[in-house]
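Researcher: Hi, I'm a grad student and pretty new to this. My advisor asked me to get structures for two proteins we've been looking at. I'm not sure of the right format, so I'll just paste the first sequence and hope you can take it from there.
Model: That works fine. Here's the first sequence with its structure tokens right after it:
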Amino acid sequence: MHSDTFRRMWADHDVLAHTSGTKRLHHPLVGDLTLDYLVLAVEGDPEQTLTIYTPEPASPSVEALALLASWTSATKRGGATGNRYLKAVP
């Protein structure tokens, strides 16, 4: 596709930042996740941003993230995780 408008916008970096929306991700252990995101600017440093991802309440994504968090919590306590993908850190 050839577009003079696109070429000009690309050269001028005249694009809009996506500061909020929904991302769909696939985790190899817990499956599909749907997360809302919000991108915040870091005051005083325009090249840095903070991105916050949150699942919809009572969704399958909440359950999947809780499962991942439980494995991490067990690992940090030094307990057995029962998961071959995670290893305890001394």
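Researcher: Oh nice, that was easy. Here's the second one.
Model: And its structure:
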Amino acid sequence: MRINALFDRLREDVRCAGERVQESEARSVEIQIRADVLLRAADERIKKAEEQVKAADERARTAENWLSRLYDTIEAEFEIKPSLQKTG
């Protein structure tokens, strides 16, 4: 009688352990799906940020070129000619 009770208890423990394993596997799949979604969203944000940085860099380069040309124009316009300098 006692052996049958031990076997019954062992069967119950194995059954409970199997249920916990299945629950853990299901939870693991849920976590993996959520992680995949978050990683995809992060990748999209990174790509968008890279595009924004690239665009900002291009705008900065354009502005730098424009300012350089503007500076050259102003310098040429207001350059003091040697013949117009006051002698001291």
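Researcher: Is there anything I should tell my advisor about the second?
Model: You could mention this: The CA atoms of residues 36 and 50 lie 21 Å apart.
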